[in-house]
Amino acid sequence: MSSPSITELVPMMICKDVQATIEFYREILGFEVRDRMDNVGTSGWASLERGPVRLMLASPSYIPAPKPMQGQLSEVLFYFYTDDVVGLRDHIVQRDYPVGDFAVRFYQMKEIELTDPEGHVLIFGQDTDEPPTPE
Asked: Which of 7, 103, 123, 127 is 20 to 30 A (C-alpha) from 83?
């Protein structure tokens, strides 16, 4: 007997200020608001999308973040694939938002990293044949 299928993963990012975080994802990264509830929790809830990529933002009092069990890691990095990491970095720089330099990893991805207003680490990567960036 096979297990039931899983059809999609939509990260829910806990944010102290959902409203400000919505603006970051709209203005800096080009996401659109798919749905929102501004009157729940301390700062609301929203569903965002850009093409096939979806995210949810939630006030901590809307859905409390789970407490990590002792000895377990609780940090999450959000990794996005793009077909134009150079153009994306240029787009972010034009909006005066801080973004890291390019790094080519040993696994043949050219990446940039930035942090959203809530402290979530976002990494954007594109396949490359470039040699790895020296450490």
From this structure: 7
Task: Give me the sign of the Cα torsion angle 80, 83, 85, 89.
Answer: negative
3 state DSSP class of 99: coil
SS3 86: helix
Whether the CB-CB separation of 60 and 18 falls below 8 Å is answered with no
* 58 close to 79: Cβ distance less than 8 angstroms: no
Do 91 and 114 form a contact (C-beta atoms < 8 A)? Answer: no
Q: What is the pLDDT of residues 56-65, one digit of tens each?
A: 999 887 765 5
Backbone φ and ψ of 53, nearest 5°: -90, 130
Measured between its terminal Cα atoms, the distance across the chain in Å is 47
- Do residues 14 and 65 make contact, with C-beta atoms less than 8 angstroms apart? yes
- Reference 111, options 126, 89, 132; nearest CA is 126
Say if residues 57 and 40 touch (Cβ distance below 8 Å): no
Strand partners of residue 35:
47
DSSP at 41: T
The more confident residue out of 71 and 3 is 3
